[in-house]
Design brief:
The chain is α+β, with helices and mostly antiparallel strands and 111 residues long. The chain has helices at residues 2-23, 42-48, 52-55, 102-109, and strands at 29-31, 37-40, 80-84, 90-94.
Length: 111
């Protein structure tokens, strides 16, 4: 019974966190270690002009101008990056990166 209550509390917390991320005005993009976009929130749609369906399972390099493609590895180190919107306008963004929690990494690896 305790495990069921713990599962229920964790599920509710996960749903609340997902709602916060989705409703954020900030662009929040999740990608795997190969740079493939896994998640894309409403803020990312507004900033870049792509829907989640447009970019999910595509490379994050879609957002980087060709002449700045070397900067992709710098995300999180410098904190600033020039990205491109769907209409090909450059947008300066503050960028950061954070690894997935170890438990989530293991779950993704099993898929």
């Amino acid at each position: 019974m305790d495990q069921l209550l713990e599962f229920s509390a964790n599920t509710e917390a996960s749903l609340i966190l997902a709602a916060i991320v989705e409703s954020s005005d900030d662009a929040i993009i999740g990608k795997d270690l190969q740079g493939i976009i896994l998640t894309w929130n409403r803020g990312a749609e507004q900033l870049y002009g792509y829907t989640a369906g447009d970019v999910r399972r595509r490379s994050i390099s879609l957002l980087i101008p060709e002449h700045l493609s070397g900067e992709l590895s710098e995300i999180g180190r410098r904190g600033r990056l020039a990205c491109v919107r769907r209409v090909r306008l450059r947008v300066p963004v503050a960028a950061g990166r954070a690894p997935l929690a170890p438990a989530l990494q293991k779950r993704r690896a099993r898929r």
